[in-house]
């Protein structure tokens, strides 16, 4: 965070900012000879797992008594298995904010993808194309047991 003003100037190239927070108490200026690109940062995670279990029991019982003589045999077995998998994708947006004025100047294109720009006054001078788009987070999970 800049206490007063923030200026980023690229006299021959692009300005690329990804997943960052740029703040100025006064004014903020991004000025690029070519492109200004403000992108969100991606965080991806994956989950994968398997499990398997087996069990068995065996028992023998002998009964003696009045009218209840006999032999008892019991047995059981079980098995289970399963798997899980999942993935998620989240985005950390880029923010550019100023207490007063924000100015973005690009000789060619300005792209804001997963980014927010805020100030008392926001001005853009774009040489060719201005692209504004949002990002979508996703989360998928699958579990199966048998």
TrEMBL record:
InterPro entries per record: Hemagglutinin_rpt
Domain of life assignment: Bacteria
Name of the molecule in the record: Filamentous hemagglutinin
Keywords: Toxin
Pfam families in the record: Fil_haemagg_2
Entry's Gene Ontology molecular function annotations: catalytic activity; toxin activity
């Amino acid at each position: 965070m800049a206490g007063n003003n923030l200026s980023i100037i690229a006299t021959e190239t692009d300005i690329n900012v990804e997943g960052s927070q740029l703040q100025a108490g006064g004014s903020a200026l991004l000025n690029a000879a070519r492109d200004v690109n403000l992108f969100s940062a991606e965080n991806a995670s994956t989950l994968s797992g398997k499990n398997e279990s087996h069990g068995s029991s065996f028992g023998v019982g002998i009964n003696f008594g009045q009218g209840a003589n006999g032999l008892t045999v019991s047995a059981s077995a079980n098995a289970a298995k399963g798997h899980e998998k999942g993935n998620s994708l989240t985005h950390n947006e880029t923010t550019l904010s100023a207490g007063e004025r924000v100015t973005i100047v690009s000789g060619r294109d300005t792209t804001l993808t997963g980014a927010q720009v805020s100030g008392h006054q926001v001005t853009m001078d774009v040489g060719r194309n201005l692209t504004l788009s949002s990002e979508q987070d996703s989360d998928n999970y699958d579990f199966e047991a048998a």
